[in-house]
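Carboxypeptidase structure dump, as promised
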Amino acid sequence: MTKIVICCCTAFLLIAGVHAQPSQPKTEPVKQEKPAEEQKSGSADLKFNPDAAVTTNHSVTIEGKKVTYKAIAGTMPVWDEDGKTIAGLFYTYYERTDVPKAGRPLVISFNGGPGSASVWMHIGYTGPVLLNIDEEGYPVQPYGYTENPHSILDVADIVYVDPVNTGYSRSVGKDVPKSKFFGVNADIKYLADWINTFVTRYDRWGSPKYLIGESYGTTRVSGLALELQQAHWMYLNGVVLVSPTDLGIERGTATGAALRLPYFAATAWYHKKLSGEYLQKDLEAFLPEVEQFTMNQLLPAINKGSQLDETARKSIARQMAAYSGLPEQLILQNNLDISPNLFWKELLRSEGFTIGRLDSRYKGIDRRDGGERPDFNAELTAWLHAFTPPVNMYLRNELNYKTDYPYNVFGSVWPWDNNNDHTGENLRSAMAINPYLHLLVQSGYYDGACDYFNAKYSLWQMDPSGKLKGRIQWRGFRSGHMMYLRKEDLKTSTGQLRDFIKSSLPKNAARY
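structure tokens r here:
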């Protein structure tokens, strides 16, 4: 499983009945605190302002109740060790205004990539507006957005953060070393510093605090949980991992190959490529059987390598074929190790389609049916199609953030230093140190980039003694990387977030 995963880090949903002009939240007069962007008069050159903000006032109906809030869109500086501004991070902060602020939870939201903006969960999952998509998450026109009736803004204030080179975030000059930002541990360090600044500036030290990250954002927030404790003495109540990466937990070649099978099985079940024996079962009744086979038979078999006798090898390949929908001969030819790319190309090859990486419900069409990998990621192109217009429309027209800088849905973060990734262990350590800290993991069964069974495996390895089990939850969904794109899953997953926040608010002193 790759440690750097393009996240979509991600979301879609169309409120029933909205297909033409999208309804938009009611907005009160704009308060301009500072110019969002300055341009040189008569020049095409842009001047980046790393410390600027615009405030607007709105309301939204969540779970049938009206919620009023203010939205602050702007940039806030990143400083180096000498107090010199080296970057400005773009953020969008939503604060409910019809209830007391004191003691109200704060959720700090990151997406992934690395190199992906916060757009995906912002306008697709937890924020007060949703982009226009159909009920399964596919693009629709006209582009636009509407109210999010399932936003978590009723129970927590939210800030969406764009790391350097994503969204409108930028370093202040070419002389600032990329190594300050672009790497597992550099990313964690500067973002922890920035969070300290944000919490101080907006008077949130008294708030219960939560981090939510998606895809590579899960690596980010797992590391931040410990960094915030150790370097800033900021202790969290909860961390939410949406479609987590491997969190730096080593698999090895054999283990990595074996752990893919449950995802293959879920996808083959969805596309009806299995025998009637399995299709007659509900997905969540079928998958435990595959998981047991994976851990108890497939994993030991692949580890044996050439020591596995031919009869056992054929028996394992036959069962893998039955669970994955792939030809037995193909599995044998690949020594029981089927790459994700080959699976995405092969499963629907006879029908002339490929399947998506981040969400294998999506189909693609290649130039030729031959080959061992798809030409493109069908799901990602659909998501970029759906998300990019509305986020530009919303930030500019609704939140009044005016700039000629492009909003980088994906931005360059090359070269990225992926060394010394111990973020899974960092999260375990943070939880062990802080009895208040709880963990929620959400995964889509059809996610082939950050698959659900690898997420389960990470939790088992992260907590080998089982002593943290009472504070860890895992939840699965019948969708992909951005499970909240399905209308049905959006309601369920935001409900889980709401319950997680409420249940992790402390009732007693932090002690074992």
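Residues 1-42 have pLDDT under 50 and may be disordered.
lmk if u need the other ones
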